[in-house]
Amino acid sequence: MNWRVLELGTFSCYENMAIDEAISEGVFEGTSEPTIRFYKWSPSAVSIGRFQSMNEEVSIENCNKLNINYLRRITGGGAVFHDSDGELTYSIIGNEELFPKGIRESYKEICGYLVNGLKRLGINASFAPINDIIVGNKKISGSAQSRNNKILLQHGTILYDINIRKMFSVLNVSKEKISDKMISSVEERVTSIKNQNPNIDFESLYKELLYSFTENKQAFFGKLTEKERIRVKELIKKYQSNEWNFYR
Amino acid sequence: MYKVKKYKIKNGKLFEIKLEFSDKINNIRIFGDFFVYPDEGLELIEKELINCNIKKDDIKLRIDECLRKNNIELIGIDSISITTAILEMIQ
């Protein structure tokens, strides 16, 4: 199987999710190769899981004040703050047959690429079922997977640097709870590449993960097809719409 | 009657139910950071529960039947937790 790799790019949250969905559709229709992509978010954004409520999870008022976008993903899981400078995100999209059949096993295999990449950077990461990667007992990466029409889409983030105060300002946590104690408590449970080793630059992180995702695969650097680009433009409207973002 | 309840699964995830009910379930929405495969599975479960008697066996049976019939896999939530949360809401 020949895998297409889309090199690191920076997009709005609407474009990022539209690209993932357009690729999934292309793979389903047989017009796109299975794909691995890496991306960043600009402006920063909050994504909520498919089954969450936007009003419950996100402070829309603060997002608007801080020019932070918000949207609903097609994957389950929790709300995530995507800091434009603080994380690297990946997606892997292909027919289910390319991955272990079980949901848990497929998380383990794909998260294994991240674990291997982080280990090569000297970070002693390990897989924490169902969908996390930890260093010691602290989370450094979370992933979410969707399966539709026999197509598996998994995307996930690797924390490069964390701004916990900013994160709490856009997630719906009451002001009383955003205490120093709470921030310390999160710092005890979450870590980042920078926390682990301040000398690792973003480019090195990307290169290692690119290597570990494509190791033992036939892969080529590609671009979105014309069909995908047209579909992305249509899907952006869905991800910007209140109908989708507030449907729960 | 309309009620909203957050329910924490022991050693698991927190989810929320919005329930409209009389002697039966009139409408239900389940929210949370769990996973459902395939993606449309949650809507199928919610639909299946409409007009269900508010009795433990009826609720759980309808959910389990829906899971089986549609090959739905739940991760981070299960039929017992949903059933228990609904029963606690009507008390």
Question: Which features does this protein show?
Answer:
heterodimer; A: 248 residues; alpha/beta; BirA Bifunctional Protein, domain 2; eight-stranded mixed β-sheet; 10 helices; 11 strands; B: 91 residues; alpha+beta; Enolase-like, domain 1; three-stranded antiparallel β-sheet; two-stranded antiparallel ribbon; 38% helix; globular
Textual characterization of the structure:
The complex is a heterodimer of chains A (248) and B (91). In chain A, 40% of the residues lie in helices and 28% in strands. Chain A is α/β, with parallel strands linked by helices. In chain A, a hairpin with a 2-residue loop joins strand 8 (132-135) and strand 9. The model of chain A has no long low-confidence stretch (mean pLDDT 94). In chain B, strand 1 and strand 2 form a beta hairpin. Chain B has one domain (2-90): CO dehydrogenase flavoprotein, C-terminal domain (Enolase-like, domain 1, 2-Layer Sandwich). Chain B has helices at 41-49, 56-69, 79-90; strands at residues 2-8, 14-21, 25-32, 35-37, 73-75. The N and C termini of chain B lie close together (12 Å). The model of chain B has no long low-confidence stretch (mean pLDDT 94). Chain B has three helices and five strands, in the order E-E-E-E-H-H-E-H. The chains are: A alpha/beta (248), B alpha+beta (91). Chains A and B meet through strand 9 of A and strand 3 and strand 4 of B.
